[in-house]
Amino acid sequence: MGDHVHVRLSQGLSVSDEGELIEHSRCRCGATFTKVFNADGGGPERPSRS
Questions:
Q1: Residue 8 lies in a domain
Q2: Range of the domain at 17
């Protein structure tokens, strides 16, 4: 039988007290994952005009 490969299923997003975006995900096997994105004080993104 082959090795297990984690498939990360999104469980939602949240924002920390420090303003970081936190992505929550899990695998069907029960493993959980958290990824933190730091905005580094940058300004908001603006959509480009076509």
A1: yes
A2: 1-39
Burial readout 8-40 (b: 16 or more C-beta within 10 A, e: otherwise): eeeeeeeeeeeeeeeeebbeeeeeeeeeeeeee
Confirm whether pTM is higher than 0.85. no
Whether residue 50 lies inside any domain: the answer is: no
Q: Residue-wise pLDDT tens for the chain (50 aa)? A: 579 999 999 999 999 998 899 999 999 999 999 999 887 766 667 777 76
Count: domains in the chain: 1
